[in-house]
Amino acid sequence: MIEVQGVSHQFAIGKKGRERIIPVLHQIDMRVEQGEIVAIVGRSGSGKSTLLNLISGYIRPTLGEIRIAGRTVTKLSEGQWADFRLGHFGFMFQSFQLIPSMTAFENVELPLVLKGIDLAVRKKRVDVLLERVGLSDCASHYPGELSGGQQQRVSVARALVLQPPIVLADEPTGSLDSDNERQLLTLIRELNRENGITFLMITHDEQVAEVAHRTVLLQDGRIRPRPSRDGMNGQGIPAAQPAGWTASLIEEGNNR
Ligand SMILES: Nc1ncnc2c1ncn2[C@@H]1O[C@H](COP(=O)(O)OP(=O)(O)OP(=O)(O)O)[C@@H](O)[C@H]1O
């Protein structure tokens, strides 16, 4: 599903002609199978966000190739990337990134509006998702009227509204207390199991890493083997057979 092959990345900072080169990632090879939950862990500055930004096409690798769902995305133009992102990724962030002047319903609906989806379909999809994340009663609330855990669940619903096969998450539980963190992790596991969604998550948090099928450790821009719970080296644990999007979350009958 996601294949990173021989990817290296360096940033150039400073004035043109007098740039300083900062090598960040070195020869990264990584595969994420459909239906896996994979956690990327590593110390601050080890290159986790850079790797996620490369996979989501916000930056291009200095060297190497990335394939997602069989497509070589490192060759896409900016415009093609924008379309590809909409069709393949949902995003979750530590800071939720909800729009404060929009209700929970409108925040979740926004990607559908941007995609030009019809009002009746939008309403049905948003209602189903808000119910799925346990927030039907809060549809008309503004983010400022919701707890941190509820805001993060709105952002999960928004990440899923275009039915992406992959969710990329950067410290998704970073600003949650332990109860809300537990609830969110349970939700992620259920969404993975019931709908076959692939999750690739950056985390500093062992609890988050524990819901993952496996963990990838980045150290100084290189992938290091990290023992997994069953004693394998963290690469290649077979993914659970995903049920697919049509299973239970969205029941419109016209999905992938
Ligand atoms: N746009 C940029 N320009 C120059 N250097 C950058 C840029 N983005 C990241 N870096 C550098 O790349 C290195 C890796 O940063 P990155 O954000 O990928 O690490 P990280 O593992 O995600 O860290 P953290 O856990 O603190 O978020 C750091 O030394 C950082 O300063």
Automatic annotation (TrEMBL):
SUPFAM superfamilies, per the entry: P-loop containing nucleoside triphosphate hydrolases
A Pfam family hit: ABC_tran
Domain ABC transporter: from-to ranges: 2-245
CDD domains: ABC_MJ0796_LolCDE_FtsE
Superkingdom of source: Bacteria
An example molecular function term from Gene Ontology annotations: ATP binding
InterPro entries linked: AAA+_ATPase (IPR003593), ABC_transporter-like_ATP-bd (IPR003439), ABC_transporter-like_CS (IPR017871), ABC_transpr_LolD-like (IPR015854), MacB-like_ATP-bd (IPR017911), P-loop_NTPase (IPR027417)
Keywords: ATP-binding, Nucleotide-binding, Transport
Location of region: Disordered: 222-256
SMART domains for the chain: AAA
Name of the protein: ABC transporter ATP-binding protein
Organism of origin: Paenibacillus hodogayensis
